[in-house]
Amino acid sequence: MTEYEQxxxxxxxxxxxxxxxxxxxxxxxxxxTELPAWEPGxxxxxxxxxxxxxxxxxxGDPADLGTWRVAVLREPAGRGGSAHVHERLTVGAxxxxxxxxxxxxxxxxxxYRFVAGGIGITPILPMLAAAEAAGAEWTLLxxxxxxxxxxxxxxxxxRYGDRIQIRPQDETGLxxxxxxxxEPRPDTPVYCCGPGPLLDAVEAYCxxxxxxxxxTERFQPKAADPDARDTRxxxxxxxxxxxxxxxxxxxxxxxxxxxxxxxxxxxxxGTCGTCETDVLEGVPDHRDSLLTAGERxxxxxxxxxxxxxxxxxLVLDL
Length: 318
Hints:
CATH architecture of the largest domain: 3-Layer(aba) Sandwich
Helix content: 10-25%
CATH class of the largest domain: Alpha Beta
């Protein structure tokens, strides 16, 4: 069992209303022992029972090994995870977690431009502290529907002053990326988290302005490629010694599970990274919303819930 696969039993030690529809939860181990270390950008899988498993970014202090903090936006049209958190996870409530896991690491750089939309502020919070501690030059452009809906806004303004640009949409309209990001610098990467339309806009703006592509974390999958075609291919599970035929209408994940091989999975949308699997041979047809362009080109791993094969044969480390 890998460190990520291990489960941790927690209790809710603190709960706070951070904004309209947003609560933060601080967890501890019931016995008070230390928790696994993590770095900015990491998330937890919360196993909420009743078949609910959701991923939430850690937004506390990585140096505090006694607690983990997440913040959760209630989604009225969601699938039940945020409602469970808001209604049932009160102080003292038990909860089981898997992780931490990190697909949104902060790379060392002399400067950063951070962009957050709504609850997308959560993975950015510890990044700001890390950038500050490293002496990097940075700014944050933070948007939301209304000022009251923007979690941690007062905490950010008090701590960082005018490096934080708080831009509620009902007051200032859509985020002005040109003003917020400034002149392109090859040594100043852009990190962005928030709703899909914001991430799409940031990616397009970076391309148009000659910047390197931004580092992003998505809560919802990217739009499917209309030109993608699903074809049959052979799948070899190296450790299990199995060779499977994956039909055009079957996902790799479904084929693996039907064959009885054990694999972790959660979102089934290519956004959480839980099912990431090493590729030993073959070329993956990447359809996830996580891997960078470089990681896709390397083809060393794939998200088997959505990605497929660009040839006739794929060998996975399963």
